[in-house]
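>> received
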Amino acid sequence: MAEGRLPHVQRVLAVGAHPDDIEILCAGTLALYARNGVQVVIAVATDGSAGHMIIPPDELARIRRDEAARSAEKIGAELLWMGFIDEYLFEDIATRLRFADMIRVARPDVILTHAPDDYHPDHRVVSRLMFDASFLSGVPHVKTEHEAHPGVKALFYFDVLTGINFMPSEYVDIGETYALKREMLACHESQVTWLREHDNIDILDFMTVMARSRGLQCGVQYAEGFRPELGWGRPRPYRVLP
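>> returned
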């Protein structure tokens, strides 16, 4: 894919509630951004410490951070690890300001995050925080550690697990990067193993079925679906997805 296809996008930020959310739901798109020369920043809100029945939380948090780092390295992405305790993410002033500061560090032109009506409480909280914080991050009188990142940025919601109640209005053909997306998800070995043993789910196959389903909808082999936030200041008169 030739560089310069996305002249209005220099940096993209993808924010997931847990390690592996990004890989399941939008890593193919992030890999395409990276191939276009766009700097990719991946932020993970929680430490993933509740995602196992055997490994203790502190140990699991360390494992999952390492897994997330290996995944991000696959596409040369910067990883921002926020470290909130898994399953205990709530909206309050301090948390909103931390999210605003994270956005100021990332300085994105485009933001990808969870849909507002996703199935998991942490996913829903991240979605609301990103809507709010991505507005506040551009307001100079809202003070955080880093300087304001001017403007209201384009915001896209990525798919939900199994796609229930999520109707994409935009699709990204990830045929070129599907294999890389799979490699990124496979880096999360603790979850691949746990989900297979605990829930009888092959998360790699799960991800493939989702990508094929969205691909069927738009006439390609593999795709990822998105829905833009259409509130004032968000839409663009040009395409910002790859």
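>> The helical segments are 21-35, 57-73, 93-106, 121-136, 178-186, 189-199, 203-218.
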